[in-house]
Write a structure and sequence with these properties.
The protein has 527 residues and is mostly helical. The chain contains 23 helices and two strands. A two-stranded antiparallel sheet has the order 1-2. The longest helix has 29 residues. The N terminus is likely disordered. Keywords: Membrane, Phosphate transport, Symport, Transmembrane, Transmembrane helix, Transport. It is found in: Membrane. Belongs to the major facilitator superfamily. Phosphate:H(+) symporter (TC 2.A.1.9) family.
Length: 527
């Protein structure tokens, strides 16, 4: 690697006259090509998505509505009855031990859909509250790494405590706490992993995170089947304790983002982090890092002027119309995607098929969706991809309303709808990273994820209502994702663009794009 200080005099003189290099270019210069060691750390970091997936979809099994049968002691009992609650006590029984589900252990089936859906809704409400209260901390006070570790630790501790819940009210409260802690796991893991590698590997590392999410999702039916006749509490223990061990491992192995350190003016910490990454990549570390000093000098004033307040990043986006417009459009599209993404796995019980197989099919759909996401991000515009995928997801979900219950065609339509939604989910997250600069990126991606979660908050109640009429689940899901996905048309295309570091840099790019478009229109008129 060649440093500016060792360049020829004329070249150095011209460099001083030129604009200071961007953080992206400076870091890329010093870390060199991403080596196997650093790539391993980035993928290890992305594995946080596996534990995230387990907590998101764990209620599919722990809160499942179990099957029941008549005991034969009462002639009034009929298997055709929709609800056993009106039957005499002792005339019916659960097919499996009562402790296999919270619904049977605490007799929630007869309490109505509101109480049955309360724990799942509480979890998503906790994700929503945590996202809005914690989302700016990773951009301001704590940074990416500390925020991720705090989220993982709090999520796992809440999960362990959930296993000892004495009743549904404590259970719902602990699910809220788990959701609150979990709210920043995916965001910080995605942003930090992409900021620790070079441009060439960003899409790959992002897809690795989505693939790890699939691994976590896929582990649930296997774990639930293993404990199918045991207490639901075992599932919480076996998903939460490994997560706590994983967070300790990350503390010792993963570095903070050098981008965030430079934007925050901590240039000495940033240089030390870049040294560590460069050594892992096999590069020499004898240079003076003058390019990073230049970047830090350029951004220190902006950081000091912006203040260190927790909500400074939100204010920065609120004051700029282009940022607010982007945020509103992508959050609106994300709401519809989140409703289907979180709602479909909860709704598999309404398909009339085997629960373990249905969830497994949904989880397996995430693997090809990760591959398709990687292919689309490299070859097709983000905006067009989101619009097309949400339209397909909406059509397939609406088809589930008219296809007879229990048929293979209905399951196929549901899985295909979930597949398209998963792909749209992945692309939206990567899209949001590219739409916003480093100074507000974690906050912006966090808000986009909260819009996804907000859709998930409404899903459990819709699923409970859908047990009576499928339009309230599949129908509403299809209309929401299909119509709201059209808001992506309001967003600028980011494929092939370099990521900005400050709001001012992004504004310059926006103005240059507008000027270029205007010039093209004028040339077309002249022709």
């Amino acid at each position: 690697m060649v440093d500016e200080a060792t360049a020829p005099l004329l070249t150095s003189f011209k460099a001083k006259l030129a604009k200071a290099p961007s953080i992206d270019d400076a870091i890329e210069t010093y870390i060199g090509a991403t080596g196997a060691g650093q790539l391993f750390k980035a993928i290890l970091l992305a594995f946080a998505w596996a534990f995230d997936a387990q907590q998101v979809f764990i209620s599919v099994f722990t809160d499942a509505e179990p099957h029941w049968h008549c005991t034969g002691h009462d002639v009034s009992c009929s298997p055709a009855a929709a609800w056993p609650c009106a039957l005499p006590q002792g005339s019916w029984a659960w097919d499996r031990p009562a402790e296999t589900s919270v619904v049977s252990e605490w007799a929630l089936k007869c309490a109505g859909p509101a109480l049955v859906s309360l724990p799942a809704s509480s979890f998503f409400a906790g994700c929503l509250a945590g996202g809005f209260l914690l989302t700016t901390l990773a951009d301001s006070l704590l940074g990416r790494k500390k925020m991720l570790l705090l989220s993982l630790a709090s999520m796992s501790v809440a999960g362990v405590l959930t296993a000892f819940s004495p009743n549904v009210w404590v259970y719902a409260a602990l699910r809220f706490m788990c959701g609150f802690g979990r709210s920043m796991v995916g965001t910080c893991a995605l942003v930090l992993s992409t900021e620790l590698v070079g441009k060439r590997w960003r899409d790959t590392v992002s897809v690795a995170g989505f693939a790890c999410f699939t691994v976590g999702f896929l582990s649930l039916p296997a774990l639930a089947y293993t404990f199918r006749d045991a207490s639901w509490r075992n599932i919480y223990l076996w998903t939460s304790l490994p997560c706590l061990c994983y967070s300790i491992l990350l503390y010792f192995l993963v570095q903070e983002s050098p981008r965030w350190l430079l934007v925050r003016g901590r240039k000495h910490d940033a240089i030390e982090t870049v040294r560590q990454i460069a050594s892992l990549n096999g590069g020499g570390i004898t240079c003076s890092f003058s390019m990073l000093h230049a970047c830090a000098t350029e951004h220190e004033d902006a950081g000091a002027g912006g203040g260190d307040g927790v909500f400074t990043t939100l204010q920065s986006m609120w004051e700029r119309r282009w940022a607010l417009r982007r945020l509103a459009a992508i959050m609106t599209a994300s709401f519809g995607v989140g409703m289907v993404y979180y709602g479909m796995p909860l709704n598999v019980g309404n398909l009339g098929s085997n629960l373990y197989l249905s969830v497994t099919y949904n989880a397996l759909a995430e693997f090809p969706s990760s591959i398709l996401s990687w292919l689309l991000m490299g070859r097709i515009n983000r905006r067009s991809s989101v619009i097309a995928l949400t339209a397909v997801a909406g059509i397939c979900s609406l088809a589930c309303v008219v296809i007879p219950e229990g048929s293979g065609a209905r399951m196929a339509a549901e899985v295909f709808s979930f597949f398209a939604t998963c792909t749209a989910f992945n692309i939206i997250l990567m899209y949001s990273i590219e739409l916003f600069p480093t100074s507000v990126r974690n906050s912006a991606v966090g808000l986009v994820r909260q819009a996804l979660v907000l859709g998930g908050v409404a899903a459990p109640m819709l699923v409970a209502l859908g047990r009576e009429h499928s339009f309230w689940s599949f129908g509403v899901f299809g209309l929401a994702v299909g119509c709201l996905g059209l808001f992506a048309a309001c967003l600028p295309e980011t494929r092939g663009r370099s990521m900005s570091d400050t709001m001012e840099e992004e504004e310059h790019k926006e103005a240059a794009a507008v000027t270029a478009t205007s010039d093209m229109d004028n040339n077309a008129d002249l022709v």
